[in-house]
Structure formats: C-alpha cells, structure tokens
Design goal:
Length: about 110
C-alpha cells in the first residue's frame, strides 16, 4: 500500500532497503535537511523517514506517526575516524561518547 504514496527522498542518504516499500521513480520531492523532510511530510502528501530522536516530540503531540516501525525502518551506521595518539578536545570526546565510541579502546 505504501508504494502508492509519494515518498520524500533524502538526497544525502542512499538506502537500498527503500525498494521494499517505495518505488524510486515515485520520489517527486527530495530534501537535504531533516527539517525540510519533516515539512514535506507535514503537508500530508508525502511519507518519509525521519530520525527517531527528531520525530519523537512530533509523534508525542500526534502530529506524526510511525507506520509499522518494527517492519519499516532504516539504520544508518556512522563511523568516527580520528588521528591516533592525539589530544582530544572536549567536543570530540562528547561526540564520541554520544556515538558510543570508547576512545580508550585499542584498535
């Protein structure tokens, strides 16, 4: 049923799993910013993916809802690449911690 709806395309992400429920040629809208994707979804004309942490407040307000999240979801892996044996700034340490990276672990 979702293949009948237009889906917002994230220009910065390639998710091959989308083919399971959306046609690539159905993407008549694309955006590079999460806020722009959310705005297009809010029009009611499109479905699309938003990061869970971003969408959670809008889901709580009833503005958005997840459609079968146990079946339809995308996981985007992140990699953190740093120079070896350098002093880490507090910002880098906080970012690594947010990603769940142990900077003290050996490679």
């Amino acid at each position: 049923m979702l293949k009948d709806y237009e889906c917002v395309n994230h220009r910065y992400a390639i998710h091959r799993d989308k083919l399971n429920f959306a046609h690539y040629d159905s993407f008549s809208a694309s955006a590079t910013q999460v806020e722009a994707v959310a705005l297009l979804i809010k029009t009611g004309r499109f479905v699309g993916f938003l990061p869970q942490h971003y969408a959670a407040p809008m889901v709580a307000k009833g503005e958005f809802r997840a459609i079968r999240p146990q079946l339809i979801h995308i996981v985007t892996p992140f990699n953190l690449i740093l120079r070896h044996n350098t002093v880490r700034s507090p910002l880098v340490k906080a970012f690594a911690q947010a990603l769940g990276v142990d900077l003290k672990a050996t490679v």
